[in-house]
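Morning run. Coffee first, then this:
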Amino acid sequence: MEITLQQFKRCDVVRVKGRVDSMTAPQLAQALHGIIEEGRFRIVVDMSEVEFVSSAGLRVLLEAQKTCKRWNRGEVVLAALSPTVREAFELTGFTRLFTIYDDVLSAVGAF
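And here it is:
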């Protein structure tokens, strides 16, 4: 899995490429936690190149979402989910917990 971080004025974009499973989820958690520790709570996760998300990956995203939403500081939004990944989010009910955009530009523009 590869993670690329890009900081904008109003939010941060985390581009994830590959599989997010129990082996790679800690990398994603570390990247998200690093952004949050710096006091930035508006995060867009670009999942256009994510092939698979396991329960460990979902848990990492949910923990980041809870931290960002605490005290109305921000939010984690998802962008460009593939049909397979979107199905995983729908089956677990996570589509109600995250705002999901069709593309990264729309997600960044929402902030």
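The first helix runs from residue 25 to 37. Good start to the day.
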